[in-house]
Amino acid sequence: DQQVKQNSPSLSVQEGRISILNCDYTNSMFDYFLWYKKYPAEGPTFLISISSIKDKNEDGRFTVFLNKSAKHLSLHIVPSQPGDSAVYFCAASASGGANSKLTFGKGITLSVRP
Amino acid sequence: EAGVVQSPRYKIIEKKQPVAFWCNPISGHNTLYWYRQNLGQGPELLIRYENEEAVDDSQLPKDRFSAERLKGVDSTLKIQPAELGDSAVYLCASSPGTTNNEQFFGPGTRLTVL
User: Fold this and answer.
1) Do A89 and B101 touch (CB under 8 A)?
2) Residue B57 sits at the chain A interface (C-beta within 8 Å)
3) B108 touching A (Cβ < 8 Å)
4) Cβ atoms of B30 and B97 closer than 8 Å
5) CB-CB under 8 Å, A43 with B93
6) Nearest in space to B4 (alpha carbons), one of B31, B24, B28
7) Which residues is A34 bridged to in the sheet?
8) A1 pLDDT tier (thresholds 50, 70, 90)
9) Which of A43, A48, A110 is nearest to B43 (CA)?
10) In A, what residues contact B, Cβ < 8 A?
11) Which of A59, A77, B22, B72 is most exposed, with minimal Cβ within 10 Å?
């Protein structure tokens, strides 16, 4: 049973436009959410996170929105750049301290066309 | 600051052979994680260490997998004997133990079992 779902396996957008990557979760105990970015042959790299006490967190071109009632979060990238082309993983953790287990989705492959 | 180091980067073995992976976490990070990432999936936690203590090994297949983190720094993950289904990328991550649960990943070891 997948507790973190990224239902769209891929997304293609034009450079300069907005990329919206979606993630749904089923475990209501999750209270911290992270997005990781992964290039081929590299490990995942932390991008941005959000606590369940917030509904939005912004860092430069990246914004994460959290809708707790819908158990849904999204990552917005604007404007999208070709270097953003990578696999994006949504991850979640439940209360249990700073080092709680992360549950990952399957990932979304983002392609940004020049 | 040096990142998480893993070796080897690639390993090809025949089934029933043993294999070992090594990880050196970021200096000062007390928490170390081993994840397995199957093709087209997100990383899945195998084991988590706090210093030298394994605090979560519930997902580790203990009949063939073992891990150790002597002295609370480097860690080794072993599979003996390897099976075809063990082909995957094995990721090591470390965390400083701050409240944001950000984990820093190494590049991974891609294991192919023939």
Assistant:
1) no
2) no
3) yes
4) yes
5) yes
6) B24
7) A49, A91
8) confident
9) A43
10) 4, 32, 34, 36, 41-46, 49, 89, 91, 93, 98-102, 104-107
11) A59
Give the pair of three-digit tokens for residue A49. 């996170």
Q: Which two three-digit tokens encode residue B56?
A: 């979560």
Q: Touching check for B95 and chain A: CB below 8 Å?
A: yes
Q: Is A35 exposed, middle or buried (0-12, 13-18, 19+ CB in 10 A)?
A: buried
How close A76 gets to chain B, by Cα (Å)?
A: 20
Residue listed under structure tokens 């990329």: A19
Beta-carbon contacts of B5 under 8 Å, excluding residues fewer than 6 positions away, are: B23, B24, B106
The reply to whether residue B95 touches residue A98, judged by beta carbons under 8 angstroms, is yes
pLDDT exceeds cutoff 90 at A104: yes
Q: Which residues of A touch B10 (CB under 8 A)?
A: none
**Quick one: pLDDT at residue A14?**
97
What would the DSSP string read from start to end of A76-104? EESS--GGG-EEEEEEEEESS-TTPPPEE
The model's confidence at residue B102, banded by pLDDT at 50, 70 and 90, is: confident
A36 forms beta bridges with: A46, A89
